[in-house]
Amino acid sequence: MKLKAYGKINLFLDVIGKRVDGYHNLKMIMQTINLWDEVDIEKTDEGIELTCDNVNLPTDKRNIAYKAAELFINTYNINSGVKIKIKKNIPIEAGLAGGSTDGAAVIKILNVIFNKNLSEEEMIGLGKKIGADVPFCIVGGTAKCEGIGEVIKPLKPLRNCILVLIKPNFGVSTKEVFNKIDNKSYIHPRIDKILKGIDEGDLTQIGSNLNNVLEQVTIEQNPVIGDIKKMIKANGSLGTLMSGSGPTVYGIFDDLHKAENCYKEAIKKYNQVFLTKTIIP
């Protein structure tokens, strides 16, 4: 069985505080985007075999997709193995949930091929054990996410909003970014205006109220992120934001011509640039 594993952006991200289990309580608005990996799984007699067309990704227990398969097989005492093939399109270490969405796809596929008939809630319960973004990637769409990301409230769908994504030529460690934010004092942003913008389908209001408290940490370490935001804004976006812990920056557009011009400018300087849109899978 093959499945498209879609990436995400954060329209809003606030860190409420650190938990005793090492995770952080968050308040986020997440959005699925039309950028995906392909996850293909077949049953085998035993064991877990994972292959990927991106040589920079581990294919052992460090990979979230591998962890998802191992957790599923052990939880439900499955006597078969699986062979997993991943075709990567989503950049790695980018803040776009590339690993998490692969893990979510594994859970969804194994639920079908092993006839477990798990509910969405049961799959979320599995997903949160392997990564904070996995529960949202199981659900997808437009959603407000709290807790570590597992408390998901669907919002009015944000469809076909044009996006330009730019990932600079380096990755960011999520763990390091969260360690640094723990030692900073910051004002918690308000979420109500962007929620209103989403409810009304007002891209201008959404764009002007994008917020991610992790930006201040990542931009401090990598000023080029601030430069990318300025470039996207100068090319007519309604708003720009770093997604997740970074370093990918995106801009929201209501005009395809402006978005295409921004894309053309960006690919002169950066290798990983995407012209895409929001979707409800």
Description:
With 281 residues, this protein is of the alpha+beta class. The chain has two domains: 153 residues, Ribosomal Protein S5, domain 2, CATH 3.30.230.10; 116 residues, 2-Layer Sandwich (Alpha-Beta Plaits), CATH 3.30.70.890. It has ten helices and eleven strands. The strands form two sheets. Strands 1, 2, 3, 4, 5, 6 and 8 form a seven-stranded mixed β-sheet that branches. A four-stranded antiparallel β-sheet has the order 9-10-7-11. A hairpin with a 3-residue loop joins strand 5 and strand 6. It starts with a strand and ends with a strand. The mean pLDDT is 96.
Note the main sheet: 7 strands, mixed
- Work out the helicity level: 25-40%
Question: What is the CATH topology descriptor of the largest domain?
Answer: Ribosomal Protein S5, domain 2
Total strand segments: 11
- The radius of gyration is 18 Å
Give the name of the CATH architecture of the largest domain. Answer: 2-Layer Sandwich
CATH class of the largest domain, please?
A: Alpha Beta
Structural class: alpha+beta
Separation, N- and C-terminal Cα atoms: 17 Å
SS element count, helices: 10
One letter per element, helices H and strands E, the order comes to EEEHEHHHEEEHHHEHHEEHE
- The figure for the number of domains is 2
Low confidence ranges: none
Query: Averaging pLDDT over every residue, what do you get?
Result: 96
What is the overall silhouette?
A: globular
Query: What share of residues are in beta strands?
Result: 25-35%
